[in-house]
Amino acid sequence: MDSSIEGATEAPSGDTVPEGGAFTQVTVVSATAGGSDIPAVAVAAAPASLSPSRAGDFMQCPLLYRFRVIDRLPEKPSEAATRGTLVHAVLERLFDAPAAERTAPRAKSLIPGQWERLRETRPEVAELFADDPEGERLAGWLGEAERLVERWFSLEDPTRLEPAEREMFVEAELESGLRLRGIIDRVDVAPTGEVRIVDYKTGKAPRPEYAEGALFQMKFYALVVWRLKRVIPRRLQLVYLGSGDVLTYDPVLADLERVERKLLALWEAIRQATETGDWRPRPTKLCGWCDHQAHCPEFGGTPPPYPLPVRAAGSGAV
Q1: HSE value, Cβ hemisphere, 13 Å, CA-based, for 256
Q2: Structure confidence at residue 5 (pLDDT)
Q3: Which keywords label this protein (predicted)?
Q4: How many CB atoms lie within 10 A of CB 287?
Q5: Would you tell me which CATH number, out of the four given (2.170.150, 3.10.20, 3.90.320, 3.40.1350), belongs to the domain 9-73+163-269?
Q6: What is the pLDDT of residue 6?
Q7: Which part of the chain has CATH 3.90.320?
């Protein structure tokens, strides 16, 4: 296999994958029944693409998916997510250096410059420390980023790694027409052609009973790679910098086929919700961290007016 993966391109700016045009088109359907015309009905188009994050949003809470993808409600940056973005950037840039120079001190020295770059590309992150005039909280936050970067060196040896791809944007279209897209942190390709997909996590490893949920994102990426190159990745590897754990899984074809079926079912569920406007909240413990409680019925809020025409029940539109 080549060192690059066909269909991969440079990742879009920022750390999220755009959901391409899923809700910008509307189909107008009209029909004739019993000799009389049925008024045209506007039906929102099915979603065009899914990323692991947006698929995860819908599985966690359909209303959260709506708030993020359809309403595009703003969300405040969080210290944890922003630190994750910073650490990812540092680990990506470290591989620009020759192998012998990929040391922990060098990696930590990249943090100030990458933080400045992040503030330039995403000015909203500066709000995180607006109430920290002395810089004490910022110093502690940057110190935690240093500890996460340093811990990585106890889990992997970058002097012995030559990634085929870093921060790689991939997209594949299934036979159904659904496009799967995402950004893979790192792809390693062995001389024998075997592929390893690696993802960095700055949090702690999940308990064993939640490991399957954590692997969903990795199996999603494996499915995309398989669809692009007809090669099943040899290994999926999650590197948890928060706890110093490495979770690995060796997928087989049946895994990828199951993930594809699951994604097609999600796609159909999202299409139905789009057409009917029925986006139901799914309360969990994660609700306490949601930015959208003011708009959520579970907290006494009211969602914004639905921005799309919806299909009337029994209209027969498809």
Answers
A1: 21
A2: 53
A3: ATP-binding, DNA damage, DNA repair, Helicase, Hydrolase, Nucleotide-binding
A4: 17
A5: 3.90.320
A6: 47
A7: 9-73+163-269
